[in-house]
Amino acid sequence: MKALVIDDSRTMRRIVTTVLKDLGYETTEAGDGQAALDVLEAGDTFDLACIDWNMPVMDGLTFVTKVRENRDWRSLTLMMVTTESEHGQIVRALAAGAHEYLIKPFTPDALRDKLELLGLLPVEETV
Amino acid sequence: MSLTAESFTFVADLVRKKSAIHLPPGKEYLVESRLMPLARRAGISVDDYVRRQRTTASLTEAELIVEALTTNETSWFRDALPFLTLAGHVLPEVLANKPPTAPLKIWSAACSTGQEPYSIAMTLLDALAGPTPRIEITATDLSGEVLAKAERGAYTQLEVNRGLPAKYLVKHFTKAGTEWQVSKELRSLVRFSKHNLLGAPPVGPFDIVFLRNVLIYFDVEVKRDILRRLRTAMRPGGFLVLGAAETTVGIDDAWQRVQVGRSSIYQNTTGSRT
Amino acid sequence: MIAGTLTVGREQILAISQDVFAAMIDDGETIVFERFGDVNEPADPIVAWVDMTIGGLGIGARAVVRTERTVADALTRALLVMDADEVVGPEDLVDAFGEIANVVGGNVKSLLAAHAVLSLPTVAGEAPTMAEHQFLQQIPLDWRGHTLVVSLWSLS
Question: Is A83 an 8 Å CB contact of chain C?
Fold first, then answer.
């Protein structure tokens, strides 16, 4: 399984990638939505993208919208991982095409739970 | 205030032997914060509490210590699979075999802080389309404290982050300050009450019972006793959902194991008539 | 200031801070509490803040976290899983401590009565000038015997 971790904070990318790697994921990091789009446009494919909302250059909501406009990327599961925690913001992200939503702060178990819901736990991890 | 190295090593060894969970050095604060309620109850410091346990080697206290260090917050849709089985297999089969006017009765036993019964309610509302039977979920636990929280239905952000699908969060919860409040609709489907699994079961008969990750804590005689009591409160042909590591096989043969995909559920071959 | 927009209580700031520390730093354990008694100003401070701006009206709020540099270093080591004696570089410090302010601020934002936009965090060696801000709330926190102060300001 491969994940694209998109956050302007290296600290947060580190936290997310550490959990994903422990679960058996290969990870690639991007510092904003545009950098993440560049990775996808270069042809690299992923099972999952973990996406921060507030980032410089291109925010996470715009990234989600752009990914959903491109049929080639339809198999990519999009999960917002963000401190935006108002009811209305979550509704906006889901309407834009995000599949799941994890609110910061989160524990490693919470990220694992979301992957289980999405059917994206690598096989040896599912009991 | 602080825990000595000897005390920490003692607790880490105890937890490793009993639960296979490894507490490496550096987790002293975890031991302190988890054992604080036990020590406070005994009226002594955490370190004194651990010292006392080293001397007395009390089995009861040893269990409490291990439990305090290994218990984690409850997830919504815990293990995910049982809820898929509920919507995809159990529910259609139960509905096919009962009159459309009869209420659908479900028991969530040992429901803790309410995540399981509310997850069941959300699954049912999603799976039932068109004219639906009345849903009655009975949720029970031994602890009045956890039931009070379950009944209030207000959860912290860290709690709603644990396995609750975002589509359900926005559909069934509203934000109230730093907490998320379960909707009135969902709460109206669940009735909470205090109950001991070794006592008389709540009023059924139930079509579906969830009893997950409870039997593992008991020896085989108590398991058999609990399973027999359960049957008396269930409809014939009703379904029992256990934890992934639990089974009725070899304990109480009145249950038939039904394999659904990767999960097993248990069908009652006896039980009360209505 | 729009009346009622910024009714964020001390207990709410405490609850958010406790969640942030428990989830990101302390393995799920709540070991952050309100610190009572005198709180000394940090001798070598490090300050991080985020702004929440309400829809082009030029009003909003600012959440500020301040502490001793040594404490910010310890938090950075914890967040980036560094060794206890590893030297914390300025880039790591700014990124990690800024992310704490970002997550605290983002959650405070969700308590505002009106929708606001969150800024990226700023980290500095001294508090920002806030001549136009009004002080709303502050709460001193105890984390493993160290002090951090979270404060909230309004801009009208």
Answer: yes
User: Do the Cβ atoms of B73 and C28 come within 8 Å?
Assistant: yes
Beta-carbon neighbour count of residue B220 at 10 Å?
Answer: 11
SS3 (DSSP) at A39: helix
- Chain A residue with minimum CA distance to B164: A114
Can you list the residues of chain B whose pLDDT is less than 50?
Answer: 272-274
- Any C CB within 8 A of B33 CB: yes
- Per the annotation, the verdict on B141 as an active-site residue is yes
Read off the pLDDT band of A125 (50, 70, 90): very low
Q: How many CB pairs under 8 A join A and B?
A: 55
- Cβ–Cβ < 8 Å for B94, B104: yes
Task: Taking residues A92-115, report their average pLDDT.
Answer: 96
CA-CA distances (angstroms) from residue C121 to A8, B171, C87?
11, 31, 23
Cα distance between residue B168 and residue A101, in whole Å: 11
Burial class, A121, CB count within 10 angstroms (exposed 0-12 / middle 13-18 / buried 19+): buried
As given in the structure block, the two tokens for residue C145 are 């015997």
Name the residue with tokens 């068109």: B130
Active site residue B225: no
**A15/C115 CB distance under 8 A:** no
- Marked catalytic residue, from B34, B187, B212, B231: B34
CA atoms of B241 and B234, how far apart (whole Å): 13
- Helices B28-42 and B46-56 sit at what angle, rounded to 10 degrees? 80
SS (H, E, C) B158-203: HHHCCCCCHHHHHHHEEEECCEEEECHHHHCCEEEEECCCCCCCCC
Q: Residue-wise pLDDT tens for chain C (156 aa)?
A: 454 556 788 899 999 999 999 999 988 888 899 998 888 889 999 999 999 998 877 788 999 999 999 999 999 999 998 888 889 999 999 999 999 999 999 999 999 888 899 999 999 999 888 888 999 999 999 998 899 999 999 987
CA dist B257 and B272 (Å) reads: 19
Contact at CB, C106 and A83, closer than 8 angstroms: yes
Sheet holding B206-211, edge to edge: B190-194, B135-141, B104-109, B206-211, B234-242, B263-268, B255-260
Instruction: Report pTM.
Output: 0.86
pLDDT at B73: 66
Complex confidence, ipTM: 0.93
Q: Which helix (H) or strand (E) holds B146?
A: helix B144-152
